[in-house]
């Protein structure tokens, strides 16, 4: 499934490249105002921080919410106390777009993450051109050389990579490329199985100085407390926010 998602996302990027060549996207990326320092925004603190996700649908959960106005949702997230916004830009299964990201970027002043299946430098330039401050890189989807070169490019463009892992070996690979923001996804993107305890078993392998993000499977404040107790500096939440009153839910989650 992960291979298929990556192949689809890269093919869609190829199609966009045919319309908007690399030189143009690279120029647009360099013309943007500098990226916001996401590491500072997500730095460990005496309270847990939240990356709030704009997510319409997913292959494992189907349709979640219409989200006719992603910018309005993102403004609620910022008002509710989120430290950053994640925008799913994958179109086929998650029903997102770069246009969603651009609208969100224009509406909030906190860092914005491009959440997609990134395998080609063109997608990194597109992210920056759309105003992203952060880019997701999924270790399981990439060979080590590609992971390293995409990570280097993200840095060169002044952005931060959220490097997503799902095993001890992947955490090792993330640290090897110099990741400073490491996520542990409770959901296996090949089988879609959830393991809420995975973060706790891997957290110790992530040294202090690297920001630890627990991703997926946060439904209640108790889940946030569970991840926090296991060492999470940040939790990334999608479904629970798009299917509820986001300000109330964020307020509850930030009170743990
Ligand atoms: O909706 P949830 O269970 O709160 O999960 C959010 C986020 O972790 C999830 O959307 C996600 C984590 N890693 C990904 C990689 C690609 C697409 C989506 C994701």
TrEMBL record:
Catalytic activity reported: 1-(2-carboxyphenylamino)-1-deoxy-D-ribulose 5-phosphate + H(+) = (1S,2R)-1-C-(indol-3-yl)glycerol 3-phosphate + CO2 + H2O
Superkingdom of the organism of origin: Bacteria
Pathway: Amino-acid biosynthesis; L-tryptophan biosynthesis; L-tryptophan from chorismate: step 4/5
Molecular function via GO: indole-3-glycerol-phosphate synthase activity; phosphoribosylanthranilate isomerase activity
Keyword Phosphoprotein: no
EC number: 4.1.1.48
Membrane-traversing stretches: none
Keywords: Amino-acid biosynthesis, Aromatic amino acid biosynthesis, Decarboxylase, Lyase, Tryptophan biosynthesis
Domain Indole-3-glycerol phosphate synthase span(s) in chain numbering: 7-247
GO biological process: L-tryptophan biosynthetic process
Record InterPro entries: Aldolase_TIM, Indole-3-glycerol_P_synth, Indole-3-glycerol_P_synth_dom, Indole-3-GlycerolPSynthase_CS, RibuloseP-bd_barrel
Assigned protein family: Belongs to the TrpC family.
The protein, known as: indole-3-glycerol-phosphate synthase
Classification lineage: Bacteria, Bacillati, Actinomycetota, Actinomycetes, Micrococcales
